[in-house]
Amino acid sequence: MPANFKAELVGCFGQPVAENPTGAMQEAAFRALGLNWRYLTVEVSPERLRDALSGVRAFGMKGINLTIPHKVAVIEHLDEIAPDAAIIGAVNTVRRDGDRLIGENTDGKGFLRGVRTDAGVDPRNKRVVVLGAGGAARAIVTELALAGASDVLVLNRSLSRGEQMVAGLVSKTKAPIRFEPWRGTYKVAGDTDVLVNATSIGLYPDLDSVPPVDLRDAQPGLLVSDVVFNPPETRLIRAARQRGLPVLDGLSMLVYQGAIGFELWTGQKAPEAAMKVALRQALGVD
Ligand code: NDP
């Protein structure tokens, strides 16, 4: 076989981007499967996003992740948007199909893979409470709705943001999604199957904060999950653990959204175990 020194390229565009740990996880996956691929973590300003996407095309890159502030702005530069990413209205992963750049959103799908794989829960016909109405919440609520959850209650501090998100998603999915303003402490009902903190409450350095929820009426099988991955052991996760409830931390979503991206780019099953180890090391969790 002739020698092949050409690496395939993927990466991430964001600003700021230096603290994004995804590269460590994807590079570990490439090594685990012996792939000559590189993941480039690149600082791109909003004014340069168009040029950066031209670079993706010119370099024949296999794909790219988008993070703050590019997840919505990238859409106008792409050739196609996957149906769920179109509903969410944001793209975190671009994949190449021939000459076409296609926008995907793996955040909500990553969350669901964690719910199924790590927590062993099938979201179909489940009653879910989602705290928050930002980008992460939007992706999670969309995928929960598409996966057949029977009731998705969104709670948000800001009334207008929550109402607008839910009205938009209901009109696009016709799914059973409801909104309630989040005032004071929310008492989680005994028939709730999954609670998701999709706010940034508890995110470093805000370590002492905990979403105001009361778990006293929770059923023993309530799955308590948190999207915050820094630190993975948030106060909410700790409180749920102390009650003996099953928990799912934010590292799960982070690994699986990357694993799904890896699979979209390479067409191969992601080496999830190697990715988890690399991510934990990169974040200094172990
Ligand atoms: P956004 O800024 O889009 O949304 C933030 C949400 O948190 C809003 O709903 C906001 O409510 C709510 N919120 C923030 N502070 C408070 C507070 N003190 N009390 C009540 N509500 C509050 O952020 P994202 O959705 O992009 O990110 C949210 C979290 O998800 C971050 O911690 C991020 O790191 C994490 N994340 C994790 C991922 C993973 O793979 N694990 C992937 C993506 C994100 P309001 O509208 O009232 O302001």
Radius of gyration: 19 Å
Q: Return residue spans where pLDDT drops below 50 for at least 5 consecutive residues.
A: none
Secondary structure category: alpha/beta
Secondary-structure element order, N to C: EHEHEEHEEHEHEHEEEEEHEHH
Quaternary structure state of the chains depicted: single chain
Shape: globular
- Side-by-side strand order of the widest sheet: 2-1-3-5-6-4
Number of strands: 14
What is the residue-mean pLDDT, rounded to a whole number? 96
Biggest pleated sheet? 6 strands, mixed
Bound small molecules, by name, code or SMILES, are: NADPH dihydro-nicotinamide-adenine-dinucleotide phosphate
Q: Work out the strand percent.
A: 15-25%
Fraction of residues in H or I helices: 25-40%
For the termini, the CA-CA separation is 42 Å
Number of helices: 9
What labels would you give this structure?
single chain; 286 residues; alpha/beta; 6-stranded mixed beta sheet; 6-stranded parallel beta sheet; binds NADPH dihydro-nicotinamide-adenine-dinucleotide phosphate
